[in-house]
Amino acid sequence: MSVLDDARAALDTGPLCDPCLGRLFADRSFGLTNAERGHALRVTLALEADEDFEAGGDCWVCEGECARVDWWAEQAATAVQGYDFSTYQVGTKVPPLLEENDALLREDAGLDPDAGEALKTELNREVGKRVGRLTDAEVEFGRPHVQFTLDLATDEVDVTVNSAFVYGRYRKLERDIPQTRWPCNDCNGTGLWQGQPCEGCDGTGYRYDESVEQLTAPVVKEAMDGSAATFHGAGREDVDALMLESGRPFVVEVDQPRTRDVDTTALEREINEFADGKVEVEGIRLATHEMVERVKELDASKTYRMDVEFAEPVTESALEDALAELTGATVEQETPQRVAHRRADITRTRDVYEAGGDLVDETHGVVRIHGEGGLYVKELVSSDGGRTEPSLAGLLGVDAEVTALDVVDVQGESEPFAKSEFLLD
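The structure assignment produced for this chain is given below.
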């Protein structure tokens, strides 16, 4: 059958609006909206048959929803007043009755069940175009700033404001500061023990008063006027370790931000003022959602500087020889005893890229290790009772202990992390 024959059959099923008529043939003609296509078919049929094919009464398929696209767009635009966004997407929840009407229309007209476009597609596009004009934003089908869902059954617009992201690197300049909030083990973070303030955390619910998260994320949350903020780090250093020099990559995720286009230079300054010398950040940039996974899964090498104490006197030449033997070595490490209670007891192999150091005196030295991500450097020094081979202690034949540890560099194995395509200009 021709398009006109199919259109006549569709109109014979009952009153149809132009969009519902036109969308039946969206895959057979191009360059028009469904409303324009439907109107053109009516006019052509009327001219051919000298008969009135004008729409009369409410459309039995969409029950008037196609005529409300302007209203839906206005509702959506009103719902996001006060939010800063430049990309959006519109979706529609179509009630089962209207979906059934859509199927019956094709069946009664003798058309393929998948002919043309569904009612949902028509509404998404037509409401979406109008929302764009009202808000001066652009459609994005990946992860837009704002997602609108039109609920035809309730006449409500559900709005999801997706998170905003800020990337940077942090340096931790004081010891005994964890990366994120550390709930108290005694009270499981409640701050109470048997109805009384927990003595282990003074009722705070946390083992430490501050964290890198608490010294950075609140500033980002306030700048973006969000409802909450979450800190994501590229790995983490020990609580008693400093994070120095180039710093560690991180992303702060802000929920439901009202402001997205923040001045990152000013934000960097505000974070550093708030952290008061305990933590410093640099390279603050706006980022995409994909950056969170990039940071969390970063395959990074790390460089450490450690103060080491030896149980017996060590000579400079012996230390040099031992460190030279560690350079380029592949190390086998059983799960360290200090973390065995929370990690599987397995044997890992990690590479030591470079090892160097100097003696301070015959029983103290400074050791610098550049190694593969996941290398346990404290155990590389001490041997952890033979659970790490080779080790500095084992090569020297002298017990050795790390008394202070600083992370001085965290860098992606294959490419400079700061050049990631997941940063926004």
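Interim note for the steering committee: The longest helix spans residues 119-135. The mean pLDDT is 91.
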